[in-house]
Amino acid sequence: MPSSTTPQALSVSQLNQRAKQTLERDVGEVWVEGELSNVSRPASGHIYFTLKDDRAQIRCALFRQRARFVAAPMRDGDQVKLRGRVSLFEPRGDYQLIAEAVQAAGLGELLAAFERLKAQLDGEGVFANARPLPFPPRKLLILSSATGAAIRDVLAVLQARWPLADVTLIPVPVQGAEAAPAMISALGLLNRQARLDPERDVILITRGGGSLEDLWAFNNEHLARAIFHSRLPVMSAVGHEVDVTLADFAADLRAPTPSAAAERLVPDQHTLKRQLEHHENRLQRAMQARLERDSQRLDTLRAKLRHPGEQLNRQRQHLTALNQRLSRAMQQTLTQQKAHTEQLAKRLASQDMARLHRTEKDRVSQLQRRLGTAMQRQLESRQARLTSAARELNAVSPLAVLGRGYAIAQDEQGQVVRRAEDTSPGQKLKLKLGEGQLSVEVKRRYKV
C-alpha cells in the first residue's frame, strides 16, 4: 500500500541556489577557449556574450570593472581564451560563466611562428630588397581588396596629391586562406606582363588594420619569396603603423599605412606648383635684370658708334686747322724776318755804308740762306704731318675700302645689307663702288 506521506519539496529558488553553490564549489574558476558570439554592450558598461564551439555554447558576462582591462576589442567570431567562474543566475536559472580576464586565443603561438619564419627568411636573404622606386611612377599597380578602406584611402590621397597618377587595381582577397595564393598569382602575372610592358613601374600591396589573425596572410613565406623575386619594385603598406608583416620585410619599401604609402609614391602637386611659381618669379626677375643690363650696354655702344661721314668730317676739320696753323706760322715768321731786315737797314744807314753794306750784305745773305733752310725744314715738317694725317684719313675712309674692290650693298630704303639671308630673290639692291654705283637684282642666295 502506498505511503500517504510525500517528501518535502524544494522551492525553485532553493533548487537554483543549491545548483549555484554546487557549480561554484565543484567547478570554480576555469580557463575556457571558444568563439565569441552575440557580443552585447549595454549602457551599463558590462559585456554579455556567448562562448561556443562546434558542439556546445555557454552564456558569459564580463562586468564593467573587469571589461576595462581587456586590451583588444571583443567581436563576434573572435577566438578567445577567458578565465572565469562557473555560476548560475538564480532569478532565471541560467547557467553562465562570469569572466575575469579575456585574451586572444593562439596569439602566443602565432607570434612564435612569425619569429621563426622571420629568422629563416632573413637568413636566406629574402629581406635584402632595397631597390629605389621611381618617383613618381609612370604606372602604379595596386594589389588590395576592391571594397576595403585601404584602397579608398590610397585613391583619395593620390587624387589630392597627384591626379596624373596612372593607377590599376588588381582586386585580391586580403584575409583568409585564399588571400596569400591570390596575391602570389597576381604578382606572377604582373611580372610576366612587365616583360612586354616596361612602363609598369611599381606594385603596391596594401590593406587596412586588423588583428594578427586578420593580417596573417601577409606572413605567408611563399608570398614573401614572391615579393623578393619580383622583377618590379614592391611597396608594402599593411595595417597600422604598429603592424609589421613578413611582406613588409620582403618589399623594397614599407609604408606604415596605406595613406602614407600614397604620400611616398607621388609628389604633392601643391608643393610643386609653389616651387614652379618660385622658380618662375626668379626667372622673370633674372630676365628683367638681363634685359636692363643689355639695354644699358646697347645705349652705351650706340653713343660710341659714329657714322663714317662724321669721322671724315672730323679729320677734314683737323686737317683744315693744321693748314691754318701752318699758314699763320709762316706769315708770322715772314713778318718777324721783315721787321728784322728793316731794323738792320736802319742800322746800315747810320754806319759806313760801304763797309756796312758789305757786312750786312754778307749777313743778309747768310740770313737769307738760314731763312731758306728754316723755311724748307718747316715746310718739310708740315708737309710730313699733312701727309701722315692724309694717310690716317684715307685709312678710315670707306671710300678707300671701296677702292680696293669692295662694295656696299643697300636695299631700297638705304639700309646696309650684311647677310645674304636678309635678302630675297627678285629684290632690288644698290651697290656703291669705289667709283660710281650699280643697281642690281638678287637672283639667288648662297651660304658660304
From TrEMBL:
Its UniProt entry gives the catalysed reaction(s) as: Exonucleolytic cleavage in either 5'- to 3'- or 3'- to 5'-direction to yield nucleoside 5'-phosphates
The entry's localization annotation reads:
Cytoplasm
Q: One biological process GO term for this chain?
A: DNA catabolic process
A single GO CC term, please?
Answer: exodeoxyribonuclease VII complex
Top-level EC class: hydrolase
Q: Which residues form a coiled coil?
A: 269-332
Task: Please give one Pfam family short name.
Answer: tRNA_anti_2
| InterPro entries, per the entry | Exonuc_VII_L, Exonuc_VII_lsu_C, OB-fold_nuc-bd_dom
**What family classification does the UniProt entry report for this protein?**
Belongs to the XseA family.
Which key words are in the record? Coiled coil, Cytoplasm, Exonuclease, Hydrolase, Nuclease
**The protein's role, per its UniProt record:** Bidirectionally degrades single-stranded DNA into large acid-insoluble oligonucleotides, which are then degraded further into small acid-soluble oligonucleotides.
Where is the Exonuclease VII large subunit C-terminal domain positioned along the sequence?
A: 129-440
GO molecular function (one) = exodeoxyribonuclease VII activity
Give start and end of each OB-fold nucleic acid binding domain.
Answer: 10-102
Q: Which organism is it from?
A: Vreelandella arcis
Q: How does it assemble?
A: Heterooligomer composed of large and small subunits.
Q: What is its EC number?
A: 3.1.11.6
Q: What name does this protein carry? A: Exodeoxyribonuclease 7 large subunit
Primary location recorded for the protein, binned into one broad class: cytoplasm
